[in-house]
Amino acid sequence: MGRFKLKCLKCGREYGQEFRLTCENDDSFLRAEYLEKKLELRNQPGIGRFHSWLPVQEELTTDAGPITYKSEAFARELGLSNLYIGFSGYWPERGAFVKTCSFKELEAYPTMQLLKETGGKAIVLASAGNTGRAFAHVSALTGIDVYIVVPDSGISKLWLPEEPTESIHLIRMSPGNDYTDAINLAGRIAKLPGMVPEGGARNVARRDGMGTVMLDAAITIGRIPDHYFQAVGSGTGGISAWEASIRLRDDGRFGQKLAKLQLAQNLPFVPMYNAWQERRRQIIPELDMKDAKKQIEETYATVLTNRAPPYGVTGGLYDALVDTDGIMYAITKEEALEAKSLFESLEGIDILSPSAVAAASLLKAVEAGKVSRDDTILLNVAGGGYKRLKEDFNLFQIPPVATARDPDMPLEELNI
Ligand SMILES: *Cc1c(COP(=O)(O)O)cnc(C)c1O
Ligand SMILES: [Zn+2]
Fold first, then answer.
1. HEC letters along 19-76
2. Fewer beta carbons below 10 Å: N end or C end of the chain?
3. Residue 211's CB: how many other CB atoms inside 10 A?
4. 382 Cβ below 6 A of ligand 1
5. Centre of ligand 1 from the C-alpha of residue 343, in Å
6. How far out from the chain centre does Cα 402 lie?
7. How many other β-carbons are positioned within 10 Å of the β-carbon of residue 408?
């Protein structure tokens, strides 16, 4: 018996349980429709709790999963009475065991499981760092082959809390190439026989894995939060939170109002912020990301620098912002660093740079009156606990198996 089907958001065409990224009629997103309309928690320690709304047959048994807690100190500093932190990272004192320290790990488990269940042998993806680390970790745990293309700036982020395995194939791109160049090269490698492209935001397992942050929050709070704060590069996490809100609304027990997306990018690279300021569905490169490569080099939170985000596509971030009456913020490095030290000293855990951007946007929202004191707010701290992890684990750097000079080089020369 099938647990879910895939449905095109534009033409309505339905597909069975496969690893499918696109509709045959158009370029819209597909969305998973689950047989279970009510969220029934499973008796699993981590993300497997949310099996109802994950596109896999077998329950995931990992202890890694999102956690949610009510903030005291940071909330008091901001004058908020219902601030909840969704934390994806390593913080054993609070029951958080995401050892690659970001919510990318939440997408890696269901994606690799779906790949396995649909007969796929090897998955190919591009990463600015955090996604690659997450998939490498799950590859080390499961033995499933992954090919990961990473720009030089992301290579230092490719560490593991265990010994790297032969199943991990890390391809480094030489300096001068950015994350989007890595996406282009990965796209070409994925066309080789036996390879399956991970698909980014088009991958429903990725989106529904990330969406568990919203599910965990709704379970903890007892309702859908009024506001959802996150820093975005591709916007996939925002789309996922929106889709999870819709499922929770349809469930009926968590309220009828979707969470308002309040999303942040990091200056100077803020293409989605710019397009959304003008309520445009299209990102216009000359207007919204002039001198993109230079801007990207100057951006503090490099994980947030995607030049081709799934913004205008049907079912993408623009639709999510429209549907939730969303707001976007542009945050400076200084604002992010200030919010980082404030959050870390008050909450007692270290956070990654994108989460500092998210925390800074919450400070801005409070100042600008975009949230009220008693609103229920979810701040998605999508990455953290790296310093905490290093107290408990030895970390291993993953060695690259090849270096690519540019995204168009002949693949035979790569020798992977
Ligand atoms: C990837 C990442 C983001 C941005 O996620 P989107 O895919 O743009 O939603 C934010 N924070 C952290 C820690 C990340 O790893
Ligand atoms: Zn379609």
1. CCCCCCCCCCCEEEEECCCCCCCCCCCCHHHHHHHCCCCCCCCCCCCCEEEECCHHHH
2. N
3. 30
4. yes
5. 18
6. 26
7. 10
Find the 58 Cα to ligand 1 centroid distance in Å.
27
Q: What is the pLDDT of residue 416?
A: 85
Give the C-alpha distances (Å, rounded to integers) separating 299 from 110, 262, 376.
31, 20, 31
Give the Å distance between the CA of 322 and the centre of ligand 2: 21
Whether 171 contacts 150, CB under 8 Å: yes
Nearest CA to ligand 1 atom 2: 303
Report how far Cα 394 is from the mean position of its chain's Cα atoms. Answer: 25
Q: What spacing in Å lies between the alpha carbon of 312 and ligand 1's midpoint?
A: 18
- Residue 229 CA to residue 8 CA, distance in Å, equals 27
* Span from the CA of 299 to the centroid of ligand 1 (angstroms): 14
The residue with tokens 């929050």 is: 217
The backbone torsions φ and ψ at residue 122, rounded to the nearest 5 degrees and listed phi first, read -145, 140
The residue count of the chain comes to 416
Q: Domains in the chain, please, with CATH? A: 67-101+206-390 (3.40.50.1100), 103-202+395-414 (3.40.50.1100)
Task: Give 143-157 as a DSSP string.
Answer: --EEEEEEEGGGGGG
- Pick from 103, 317, 361 the residue to mutate for probing ligand 1's pocket: most ligand atoms within 8 Å of its CB: 103
Judge if pTM exceeds 0.85: yes
Phi-psi region of 300 (alpha: psi -120 to 50; beta: other; left: phi over 0): alpha
385 lines ligand 1 (CB under 6 A): no
Q: Is the dihedral of CA 250, 253, 258, 264 positive or negative?
A: negative
Instruction: Flag whether pLDDT at 13 surpasses 90.
Output: yes
Average pLDDT, the chain: 97
Indicate if ligand 1 lies below 6 Å from the C-beta of 233. yes
- Average pLDDT of span 115-143: 95
